[in-house]
Specification:
- By secondary structure, the chain is α/β, with parallel strands linked by helices.
- It folds into 3 domains: 13-173 and 292-335, no CATH class; 360-434 and 523-615, 3-Layer(aba) Sandwich (Rossmann fold); 447-512, no CATH class.
- 63% of the residues lie in helices and 9% in strands.
- The chain has 22 helices and 9 strands.
- Strands 5-6-7-3-8-9 form a 6-stranded mixed β-sheet, with helices on both faces. Strands 2-1-4 form a 3-stranded antiparallel β-sheet, covered by helices on one side.
- Strand 6, helix 19 (536-549) and strand 7 form a beta-alpha-beta unit.
- The chain is elongated and about 120 Å long.
- The N and C termini lie far apart (84 Å).
- The chain binds adenosine-5'-triphosphate.
- Adenosine-5'-triphosphate is lined by residues 125, 369, 371-372, 376, 394, 396-402.
């Protein structure tokens, strides 16, 4: 039990630390307002007690008597405090909203950092880790998260009001308030420990089940699934699966909750005995004449105010839920070697950009994905001199995309070394910035065309000539003409004035993004099959044009269509398990009559047949 108490205290310390790191100014302001709010409450119970105590004397003295004036003065103070209370509460809402916004932004920063640490994305491939991180993200997206944050200050203010009540009660019997408050604290902490354990369990043990349940619920409303759900008449099936998945997630929690509640019942009993005893003592003192009317009113109110050390209902529940997300995030950060929060004075990263082509080297590289045992690439050696264009070809699963991800520093090799311009891209931000890549599943940002292209050159996205040239080199001028608001058109039909693009148009936008990156200093340009939606001729024309406009950088092209990449300086053929099996120019490889020649001839024949078919 003591360890659990310590853990509860630890999570509030963590919460305070995160708040302080996120927005120190607003945190101080919110704490001050919470203190003011509680002070108003304490003063109010004193002034009402004094006012009530002054009334019998005032009644005896009559209107205008000094005793009546005395009662009026306490009345005026009580009325002023009653007016001040709501004003301070309104101020608290305002300050609280600012604090929560800062905290939320900071948590998103921490989540993002956790997802890509250490630099690569390998952890996101591990279902356990990425599932837990996803659960944290979902918890922070939920409105209850901000509600819990807001309630930090309600809880603090009420606890401080309890401190005020202790001071008041100490003037009667100094030891008594500690006795009563202690019983409330035991009850509250037992309850909080139970709450926290429940929420932690919810995030840790049932997160993936709950996520699956949410996914199933989403199937009923998501446009991409709606067609099939209706066509195959899946509604009942989805609803049943949702219900059973949700129930199985929650069923694991219910017995735990029941067991955890027993100490809460016990501590309620202790608290009832303490308050009952205090009321008996008060009755005794009143009968003995040591406590008057003012004392009775003040002391009873103070005793009731001690309740604020106890269970605070919704505010406490919401706060526990929010801190559960922060605790789990901290655990995940610790697992990847990150501190719970980010230091305030991080030195700004070096954004100086080098220009020109760079050499790319893979030296005896072996790499297996975290979820697999057999390596995706083994003992791979590849050296691409600065400025050379290389096409990487091979059957499905040969490891082409894996090589590209290693070059981008998204994964670290298990053995061997990867170098871009002499530096390890998994370690060096500068090396990563020298690589511009467009993957087959590139991101279609629901942002303007300007942002979609400019993201390749974030530091120089204001330079229109870079964007113009990139789009034109990517063959996107026709597309620009068709957009109603030109560069500022949002590329999504979900926004007013926005429009979606065809697969081929999107690919040109993505290619323009890569070319913008080259203008901004990237020394290696990689295209990992982003042109699959274009027809064979369009892809070949685009690749030729690419090789033309990227003469000054190292270029790596990945494609299954060999005719599209035949003009690359060099072609390497990858084979699953065997690594690079052929390496040379198009002509050299044709002459060698090996795997490449065989694949090329086969594709050329099929292409000719299709051509004939369409011609006839
Ligand atoms: N994220 C991943 N997790 C686990 N295994 C993966 C992952 N990505 C790829 N693999 C596996 O690694 C091997 C190499 O895949 P890779 O995508 O590099 O091949 P590829 O040559 O690019 O194939 P394709 O031509 O189909 O794009 C395959 O066996 C694949 O199943």
């Amino acid at each position: 039990m003591l360890t659990e108490f310590a853990q509860t205290l630890g999570r509030y310390r963590l919460h305070a630390r995160l708040l302080w790191r996120a927005c120190p100014g607003w945190t101080v302001a919110a704490a001050m307002v919470a203190l003011l709010n509680s002070a108003v409450g304490t003063l109010l119970l004193i002034s009402t007690g004094q006012f009530a105590g002054a009334l019998p004397e005032a009644i005896r003295g009559g209107a205008g008597s000094p005793a009546a004036d005395h009662a009026w003065r306490w009345f005026a103070l009580t009325a002023a405090l009653l007016i001040t209370g709501p004003l301070v509460a309104a101020l608290m809402v305002w300050v609280t909203a600012r604090t929560s916004a800062g905290y939320l932004a900071h948590v998103f920063e921490l989540v993002a950092e956790t997802g890509v640490h250490p630099q690569g994305i390998e952890l996101l491939d591990s279902p356990g880790f990425s599932g837990r991180l996803q659960a944290v993200v979902e918890a922070t997206r939920d409105w209850t998260f901000t509600f819990g944050l807001d309630n930090t200050w309600t809880v603090l203010s009420r606890r401080l009001a309890g401190v005020g009540a202790i001071v008041v009660l100490m003037s009667w019997h100094w030891w008594l308030p500690f006795f009563i408050a202690g019983s409330f604290v035991v009850m509250s902490k037992t309850y909080a420990t139970w709450l926290n354990t429940s929420f932690d369990k919810l995030l840790q043990t049932s997160a993936s089940e709950l996520r699956r349940a949410r996914y199933l619920r989403g199937l009923l409303v998501r446009p991409e699934a709606a067609k099939e759900v209706r066509l195959f008449d899946l509604t009942d099936w989805v609803v049943d699966r949702y219900r059973s998945t949700w129930l199985s997630a929650m069923a694991a929690l219910w017995p735990l909750r029941q067991r955890g509640l027993r100490p809460v019942y016990l501590s309620c009993l202790v608290m009832a005995v303490a308050v009952g005893g205090a009321l008996a003592l008060l009755t005794h003192d009143v009968v003995a004449g040591t406590v008057g009317l003012a004392g009775v009113v003040t002391l009873i109110q103070a005793m009731l105010a001690l309740e604020s050390f106890g269970i605070l209902g919704d505010p406490q529940l919401a706060l526990a839920q929010s801190t559960a997300a922060a605790v789990e995030l901290t655990r995940l950060r610790q697992e990847v070697g990150l501190p719970p929060t980010r230091p305030a004075d991080e030195s700004p990263e070096d954004r100086t950009t080098s220009v020109g082509a760079v050499e790319v080297v893979l030296d005896d590289v072996t790499f297996a994905y975290p979820t697999r045992t057999e390596p995706a690439v083994a003992n791979l050696d590849l050296r691409i001199p600065a400025g050379q264009s290389v096409a990487m070809v091979g059957v499905n699963g040969a490891g082409k995309s894996t090589v590209i991800k290693l070059l981008c520093g998204l994964y670290r090799p298990d053995q061997g070394a990867v170098r871009v311009g002499g530096a390890d891209p998994a370690e060096s931000q500068a090396a990563r910035r020298r690589v511009a890549v467009i993957f087959q599943d590139f991101v279609r940002y629901h942002l303007s065309l300007r942002d979609n292209v400019g993201m390749g050159a974030v530091a120089r996205r204001g330079e229109q000539q870079i964007l113009d040239r990139a789009l034109s080199d990517a063959g996107g001028n026709g597309l620009l003409k068709r957009l109603e608001s030109g560069w500022d058109t949002v590329l999504s039909a979900e926004y007013e004035g926005g429009t979606d693009l065809s697969g081929g148009q999107w690919q040109r936008v993505a290619l323009a993004r890569a070319l913008a990156a080259v203008s901004a200093g990237a020394g290696v340009l990689i295209l990992d099959e982003p042109t699959a939606a274009l027809d064979v001729r369009a892809e070949a024309a685009l690749f030729d044009r690419f090789l033309e406009v990227t003469r000054d950088v190292t270029t790596i092209l990945v494609s299954h269509r060999l005719s599209s990449v035949r003009h690359a300086d060099r072609i390497v053929v990858l084979d699953p398990g065997a690594g690079i099996v052929e390496d040379g120019s198009h002509e050299e490889l044709l002459q060698a009559g090996g795997r490449y020649a065989e694949m090329f001839t086969l594709q050329a024949q099929r292409f000719a047949q299709v051509d004939e078919g369409s011609g006839g």
